[in-house]
Protein: Peptide deformylase
Amino acid sequence: MSCYTVIELGNDDILRTKCVAVRRFDERLKQMLANMAETMYDYDGVGLAAPQIGVPKRMVVIDVGDGLLELINPEITAADGKVLGVEGCLSVPEQQGYVYRAAKIHVKAQDSAGKFFEFDAEGMLARACQHEIDHLDGILYVDKLAHPSQAEIDALEAKEE
Structure:
């Protein structure tokens, strides 16, 4: 396996590109996913989307502490609620900001063999899925920065304690 270099905002237009669907489910794809996961772990991230390594394909890897999740051609088919959280991004190093995301989502995707699967997510997994899927449409968390009130920030911090 090998690590990729993560593209940083301002260094490549691919981060603003709408990615194309994956059509070939072969060993090359599996190797790319393995390399993406290694890169994500090496950079100490919880998610990585293909455009962040210069590949305009609809695929992401995520691990919020529950094991590796590979999502090919993912889409959010339902969303409910709204929650404020702090986000960062490997493509926007050493910065964080407040972003509102859906509290609960339903995701449909394919695995590395092309088989469809679905799951519900909430909490950190829901946030990570939304963040990474946004990358596939050329959207970064900095495009969605919120300006919460001090009361909202205090409530978020109290919830995290």
Remarks:
- The beta strands are 47-49, 59-62, 69-80, 83-89, 92-101, 104-110, 116-122.
- The two ends are 38 Å apart (CA to CA).
